[in-house]
Each structure stands twice: as C-alpha cells, then as structure tokens.
Design brief:
Elements lengths: L1 H60 L2 H15 L28 H6 L5 H29 L7 H15 L2 H88 L9 H11 L1 H24 L5 H22 L4
Length: about 325
C-alpha cells in the first residue's frame, strides 16, 4: 500500500511538472504573440507615416526618388512586391526594400494567418482601409506635380505645388489621418487587455502547478523515508529475535556439555578387559605372521634387485598391500 502511494505521489509530481512546462510554453507563446501583434500594428502605422512623409517630401522638392519610394511602399503593402524582413523598422528615404524580400504577401492575407480575434482583425482592416483612402488623396496631390514634366514653367509649378499642399496639409487630411491611427490604438489596447487576462490565468495555473508539484514531491519523499525507517525497524527486530534464539541454543549446548556422563553398568568394564585378554594371543599370532611376511618380502626384494621394471612394480605393490593390511589390523606404522 505504501509503495502504491509513493508511486502515485511521484507520478503526480512528474505529471504536474510536465503540465507546468506546457503552461510556461503557452505563457511564452502569448508574449511572442503580443510582440507580433504590435509588429503588425506598427508596420501599418509606420507605412502610413512613411507614405505621408514621402508624399509631402515629393510635393516640397519635386524629387523623383520620393515618388518612387512612395509607390514602392504601396506595392509591398498590397502584395505586388516581395515583403522585406523587419518592414516596420525600415526607413523609406531613398531606400528600395523590395530587393531584399523573399515573398509577396498582401497585408490582408497576413492578418488572416494570425490568431487575432474577429474584432481585432476588423480594427486592422479598418485602419488599412483608411490608409488606402488617404493614399488616394496623397497620390492625387503628387500627380499635380508629376503632370508638369521635367522642365515645368515656374508659375505652373508654383500653382501645382500650392494645390498639392492644400491637399496634404488640409484639416480634412488630418482627420483622415486620425481614422488610420485611431483603430490601431484600439487594436493595441484590445490585444493588450486580452493577453493580460490570458497571462493572469496562466500565471495562476503556474503558481498552482508549482505548489501541487512541490507538495507531491515532498509528500512522496517523506513517505519513502518513512517506509525505509519502518523496514529498518522490522529488520532490526528480526535480527534481535534471531540473536535470542542463537543465545538460547548456546546456553543449551553449554548445559549439555556440563552434564555428567551416565554411569556404566556394573561389570561392563571387567567384561571388556576379559574379552581383550582372550584375544591377545590371536593378535600376537597375526603380528608374528606379518613380521615373517615382511622378512620374506625383504629377502625376495634382494633377490629381485636386478629384475625387469614390471616385476619390480608388482613386487612393490605387494609390499604396500602387506603393510596396509598390518596397519589396518594392528595399527602399526612402518
């Protein structure tokens, strides 16, 4: 039972740690999502500001490079030119970022690929539509100077520049500009609030999972130590019981050794001595015969000193058998 409880605690702690890792990953993903959302809004906001800056710069200077930069930015945003990386960080002054792009993706299509809510997407699309409407005013202002050609009349150029400036610096243009920036500000606010709520929920889950995981780990370790202590106590109890049995056996053995030998029956020793005395003549006769056999074997050994090796080996074996027989019967050693 204890093993099962410890296993459940350890398994629960491991599962809690895995869940905690997943929640932390989700929390980091929310942070990355918020960064990407701000990048979207910043790109649209930055491109609108750059379009305004390029249009006004072209009207003020009649420099063709501002005109080209303006329409390059429009084509990138609409997906007609490859989109460069980190578009929101690009300064459009005399720079053509299309050469570094890898794919042409319209801004609307990029919005659909994201995880924005419906309201958030509508705010971005509303800002994009307002920026497109504003770009039409800017294009009409630039065309007033573009139609003059390369060597315009000074008076005609002054009149065209004045008309273009009236478009780009009018109160209506400023109000239209607010229609671009207003939805982007609300988009940032909505995304921040939504991600803040999700981050708070994930933060509470992280705290709860950390507490649960650590509690299960501590409980499992405590139960494991307690189980080891109980096992050690039982083992020591068995050792003490075994030691007591050994001590009792040793005491019994000592008592047995100290017991006096039982008395022999009367006349048993006298009868044994009479039996041995009666057989003494037989023992002497066996000993005499063995001695004669040994002497004859010695004489035979002298006679067979120069015989072949097999005969010598057979004779030595015979001597060994004779000595073994005498030793077994009488207990002599030669």
């Amino acid at each position: 039972m204890l093993t099962a409880v410890v296993t459940v605690c350890i398994g629960g702690a491991a599962l809690g740690q895995l869940t905690l890792d997943q929640v932390v990953i989700a929390w980091k993903a929310r942070q990355q999502f918020q960064f990407e959302a701000f990048q979207f809004a910043n790109e649209l906001r930055g491109s609108s500001e750059r379009l305004t800056s390029s249009a006004r710069s072209y009207v003020a200077t009649h420099d063709r490079r501002f005109y080209d930069d303006y329409f390059d930015a429009l084509e990138i945003r609409s997906g007609r030119r490859p989109r460069p990386p980190a578009l929101a960080q690009i300064s459009w002054g005399f720079f053509v970022p299309a050469r570094t792009g890898v794919s042409a993706v319209p801004f609307e299509q990029m919005i659909e690929r994201t995880g924005f809510t419906r309201d958030e997407k509508l705010l971005l699309l509303r800002a994009k539509a307002a920026s497109d409407a504003l770009s039409r005013q800017e294009a009409s202002a630039m065309r007033k100077l573009e139609q003059l050609g390369y060597r315009p009349d000074a008076g005609a150029e002054a009149r065209a520049r004045y008309e273009a400036q009236q478009i780009l610096f009018s109160p209506g243009y400023t109000l239209a500009k607010r229609e671009v920036l207003g939805p982007l500000g609300r988009f940032d606010e909505k995304v921040s609030q939504r991600l803040k709520r999700e981050a708070e929920v994930l933060g509470d889950e992280i705290v709860l999972l950390r507490y649960l995981t650590r509690s299960l780990a501590v409980l499992g370790a405590a139960l494991a130590l307690w189980g080891l202590w109980c096992t050690r106590a039982g083992y020591e109890a068995r050792l003490r019981a075994l030691s007591g049995v050994c001590d009792a056996a040793s005491s019994l053995n000592d008592l047995t050794v100290r017991l006096p030998a039982p008395p022999a029956p009367p006349g048993a020793e006298v009868a044994l001595n009479r039996l041995l005395a009666g057989q003494e003549g037989v023992f002497r006769e066996i000993d005499r015969s063995a001695a004669d056999l040994e002497q004859k074997l010695a004489e035979l050994d002298a006679l067979l000193a120069h015989t072949s090796e097999p005969a010598r080996h057979a004779f030595d074996s015979l001597k060994e058998h004779a000595r073994a027989l005498r030793h077994a019967v009488l207990g002599y050693r030669f």
